[in-house]
Specification:
single chain, Beta-Lactamase, Heat Shock Protein 90, 52% helix
Length: 436
């Protein structure tokens, strides 16, 4: 489970409030117990004063008392001289040390009593007066308060937790909205901005800062894309003229056999021209300005046309017997470019043969292009689709390649909702799957 800020804040609020309320409850019970004990001790003192006055004037034969009030006059030796009727015949109920204390072992009684021991004179002889009273005046209010707090504290903690959860959710909702808006911003819609609340608080300032960052990011990317596009456009015209001049010069030079140097320059010019075209393709894709012209496409016609083009060059044998009728929805020009790049890549790395197959099945159109070259290592199967990717092995030291062909293929395939991969078993087979 992901522990969100909302969860953590609520958990902290519940734990802290629970500890605070529990502490306050203990302090309240302690304070109430102390106050009730003081009140009870004060009452015992007043009752002891009354009994002591009676003893000083005319010593009685017994002490008055009720069910909850106990009284005894005890000699230093521990003999009971006088007692209340409810303690008749009972031994001393407390030690004779002066002071107040709580006792639980009163003979014949199960209650707890609070007792006061005070030295007195009985007929001129030293003795100890023991006065006790039922402790219910302390225990009953404490019990009631404890039960009340036992119910109230959890209810308050849960209510506070629910309130914190709700308030935290409302507070963080703008942040979650900003996160969703940021997720929706891609390279094709960099002009989108986050909604900025009118509250003027930290969240509003965060949205403003993120929008300013997006402004700078958009400006940097636009300038980069514009640079690539402008450079490619500026290079395209002189390259076309250079190629035309070289082709004319090459035709004129064939008569005297001095064509090798011109042929080499022409090949390099063609490579440079291909690089410019690839850069233009990628620049258009990155900027989102290259819209797909979507319509039904007979993919088998495109594959057969590109296979025939490679076969006519005569460098490798092209086996297209596995191509069957297949149709998809997409941009015919873009799909043709992807097929061309894939076949050109296979031609560069093949020893003698390139095999092409196209079938429909399981809701997809499956195009496979296989060459009889060395294949691609497992650790390089993803990197070959990166721009300007170059591997150390001889397979990618291609003559005439720009290092962008497979990157363009993947970009086109993914824009059409498809996937491209290298087969796990036949390491030189590329597989493209497009929706029917």
């Amino acid at each position: 489970m992901t522990k969100t800020i909302r969860f953590r804040v609520t958990a902290v609020a519940v734990v802290v409030s629970g500890i605070l309320l529990l502490t306050v409850s203990v302090l309240m019970i302690t304070a109430l117990r102390a106050q009730l004990t003081d009140n009870l001790d004060e009452g015992l003192g007043q009752r002891a004063d009354t009994i002591e006055a009676v003893l000083a004037s005319s010593p009685p034969t017994s002490l008055s008392g009720d069910e909850d009030l106990l009284a005894q006059v005890v000699t230093p030796a521990g003999s009971v001289l006088i007692s209340s009727a409810n303690l008749a015949g009972r031994p001393p109920i407390s030690v004779l040390t002066p002071g107040s204390r709580t006792i639980t072992d009163v003979p014949g009684r199960s209650e707890t009593f609070r007792v006061l021991v005070r030295p007195v004179l009985d007929e001129g002889q030293p003795a100890s007066l023991i006065v006790g009273i039922n402790n219910d005046d302390i225990t009953d209010p404490i019990a009631v308060l404890s039960r009340l707090l036992a119910v109230a504290v959890p209810i308050v903690v849960m209510a506070l937790g629910a309130l914190t959860w709700r308030l935290t959710g409302r507070t963080l909702r703008p942040v979650e909205n900003m996160r969703r808006e940021m997720t929706a911003i891609t390279g094709s819609n960099l002009d989108r901005r986050l909604h900025q609340p009118e509250t003027g608080d930290e969240i509003a300032r965060l949205a403003q800062t993120m929008n300013e960052t997006l402004d700078r990011l958009e400006d940097a990317i636009r300038r980069q894309q514009r640079f690539v596009a402008d450079a490619s456009h500026e290079l395209r015209t002189p390259l076309t003229r250079i190629r035309s001049e070289l082709e004319l010069g090459l035709s004129a030079s064939r008569s005297n056999g001095s064509t090798q140097s011109l042929q080499s320059v022409l090949e390099e010019t063609i490579n440079l021209q291909n690089l410019v075209e690839d850069l233009l393709q990628l620049a258009g894709s990155d900027s989102g300005s290259q819209a797909l012209k979507v319509r039904p496409v007979d993919l088998d016609d495109i594959v057969m046309r590109e296979a025939r083009r490679v076969r006519e060059r005569g460098r490798v044998i092209v086996d297209a017997r596995g191509v069957s009728a297949a149709q998809t929805i997409g941009d015919a020009e873009q799909l043709g470019r992807a097929t061309r790049n894939l076949l050109d890549n296979a031609e560069r790395h093949a020893v003698s043969t390139v095999s092409v197959a196209l079938v429909e099945g399981h809701g997809v159109v499956r195009l496979t292009v296989n060459d009889d070259g060395e294949g691609i290592r497992a650790e390089d199967r993803e990197r070959i689709f990166e721009r300007f990717a170059r591997l150390d092995e001889g397979r990618t030291r291609d003559v005439g390649g720009t290092g962008l062909g497979l990157a363009i293929v993947r970009e086109i395939v993914e824009r059409h909702g498809g996937v491209i991969r290298v087969d796990d078993v036949r390491r030189s087979m590329f597989i493209i799957e497009l929706p029917l």
